[in-house]
User: Fold this.
Amino acid sequence: MKKVLLGSAMFLTGGLSVALLLAGSMANEWTVNGQFSSVWNLSQYGLMPVVYAFLGIAAAGLAVAVWGVVDRRD
Assistant:
């Protein structure tokens, strides 16, 4: 049960962090070919490694939560 809670918290934290970065990057008026691009905005600030780190945290959290569900030791 502890693994499920830890994994769920990690997944929620990673997902919310990525969503916050993507939403915050669209606050600027930067466009690419007349189209808004949050990925381009994040790369201009050098935040793509941070996005990848948060996505890694979310993926690890999902893996820990699934591991906690299928673990038969409890």
